[in-house]
Specification:
With 297 residues, the protein is an alpha+beta fold. The protein is 15% helix and 44% strand. The chain is built from four helices and 18 strands. A six-stranded antiparallel barrel has the order 4-5-10-8-7-11. A four-stranded antiparallel β-sheet has the order 15-14-17-18, with no helix packed on it. Strand 1 and strand 2 form a beta hairpin. Helix 2 packs antiparallel against helix 3. The chain is elongated, with a radius of gyration of 26 Å.
């Protein structure tokens, strides 16, 4: 295919030696028909495109630089796939999961660099240092790809994205995605719950900060809303018990409440609490159980 048929614009720079250098500039998806663009994996498998990856420093958002070289005499049209796992060459550093799709066009024998938008998928390892090398890696399991595509199509908060990836990659609890009540985060939490085969949790978990580690793994606070209904005037008691049934905390003791719908806002410090399952009980008139909820630390 001739250069004039490509959808890239060529920038020509005159060097001191008098030679010319051509560098491609990507226009993007709008420059070509949808069926022209194929997954990057197709070109890597055929040896048509060579890729090198370096860290820009850090573990989230635009944290890697990807250099692509077109090794053919044709213009190549491909997209960087959400769900591609970039593998760190340093085993102590985190791998990066790409979660934003990028459309790329490169003329014959030209090169182009983009910043990849991704997040780490190994919470127990160190954040990659600047200029650390990565392999171009491979496509992650289908569940990871589904989550990555959803992230690519939405503008979720970075903190929620990182939590979502760790739920899939490191089996963190779904409650680690902070529930702000928005429809967008509901979509993210629901997809992950569907993949895990569990209910969407009613609560959120906040973790302690740790200057030595990216993820401390130490729950600090549980927040959530418990809805309950009273038929009559009642005295309400709200308690928390552990898996053995031992009373851990009394949140409300013999508080009067009228009939109708009620919301109890749980905002509970759980710093230094042992890991396990805990139960929140709401009793009417001291002994009649109205509702119970559980959370996991």
């Amino acid at each position: 295919m001739k250069i004039k048929q490509a959808i890239s614009i060529t920038l020509i720079a005159f060097l001191a030696s008098g030679t010319l250098m051509f560098q491609s500039f990507v226009i993007g998806k709008a420059g070509g028909s949808a069926n022209q663009y194929l997954p990057l994996e197709n070109f890597l498998s055929s040896g048509s495109v060579k890729a090198t990856v370096k860290s820009l420093g850090g573990h989230k958002k635009e944290c890697v630089a990807l250099d692509f070289e077109n090794l053919t005499s044709d213009t190549v049209f491909f997209f960087l796939e959400p769900g591609r796992r970039l593998v760190s060459k340093d085993s102590s550093h985190q791998d990066i999961l790409i979660v934003k799709q990028r459309w790329i066009t490169i003329p014959p024998f030209a090169s182009y660099q983009i910043n990849g938008y991704g997040f780490c998928c190994q919470s127990s390892k160190s954040s990659p240092r600047k200029n650390a090398d990565f392999f171009i890696g491979y496509m992650a399991p289908e569940e990871w790809i589904r989550i990555s595509k959803l992230i690519s199509e939405n503008n979720f908060p970075p903190g929620a994205v990182q939590s979502a990836i760790w739920i899939i990659s490191d089996d963190h609890p779904i409650g680690s995605i902070y529930n702000d009540g928005s429809e967008d985060l509901y979509k993210l939490r629901k997809m992950i719950a569907d993949i895990k085969g569990v209910e969407i949790p009613w609560y959120s978990v906040k973790y302690e900060k740790d200057s030595m580690r990216l993820f401390s793994g130490r729950p600090e606070k549980i927040t959530g809303v418990i809805n309950y209904f009273l038929k009559n005037n009642s005295m309400i008691t709200i308690t928390i018990r552990n898996e053995q049934g031992k009373l851990v905390r009394t949140l409300v003791k013999s508080s009067p409440a009228g009939p109708g719908n009620h919301d109890y806002l749980l905002d509970l410090s759980v710093k230094s609490w042992p890991n396990g399952i805990y139960y929140v009980f709401i009793h009417e008139d001291h002994s009649n159980l109205n509702i119970s909820k559980s959370f996991v630390l």
